[in-house]
């Protein structure tokens, strides 16, 4: 079982209670994996910010201090493994410079429109599992978080062509692409037939030519931009979030 620490529990004293509440809610004694959801801190009790006043600065709730509390939870057996989500290479390096337990996972947006080869190379080198979220394009996002003009991964002509040529679904092509790059992948579906197709992706393969065709689709296009964490007065912006 995997869960994540939400942004409103980044203060060192709040990390363990947040994890303990999760364990109580799902009636387990420990998690397999616990991740810091975003490198952004909100004030306790704030689920989602409505103004800059809802944020904590990184001086008030440093990522290093949050990570120390995550390490303590792991040492006490509340989670077998700990990691991060939506962390840039720069932010992971800062953790690696001063940690007892290194992040074992980084969960990031990863798909053919945003392939992140540098992140993949970095995580391979550091023995960090790179997990791909939104591998199919996250079409179920609320409308306010979607660009109405954003392209569709599932309907992309190259993906559709490869799917038809191999007798796969477009979703299977996207999932298999992620697997063959050496990443773990977490597609979402509640449809039994699609769930089976997703699992079957582990048993199929794409040719080198297929992989080359997909590589050309790179746009460095994020579907989850992080713009909702914009609070420049406290050091949060899209630029500082992704360090790009």
Biggest sheet, strands in spatial order? 1-2-3-4-5-6
First-last Cα distance? 32 Å
Please report which band the strand proportion falls in: under 5%, 5-15%, 15-25%, 25-35%, 35-45% or over 45%. 5-15%
Unreliable segments of 5+ consecutive residues: none
Helical content band: 25-40%
Mean pLDDT: 95
Question: What's the alpha carbon Rg, rounded to whole Å?
Answer: 19 Å
Order of helices and strands: EHEHEHEHEHHEHHH
Number of helices: 9
Structural class per helix/strand content?
alpha/beta
Number of strands: 6
Q: What global shape is seen?
A: globular
Biggest β-sheet, characterized? 6 strands, parallel
Question: What is the gist of this entry?
Answer:
With 244 residues, the protein is α/β, with parallel strands linked by helices. Helices cover 36% and strands 12% of the residues.
Main traits of this protein?
6 strands; six-stranded parallel β-sheet; 244 residues; globular; alpha/beta
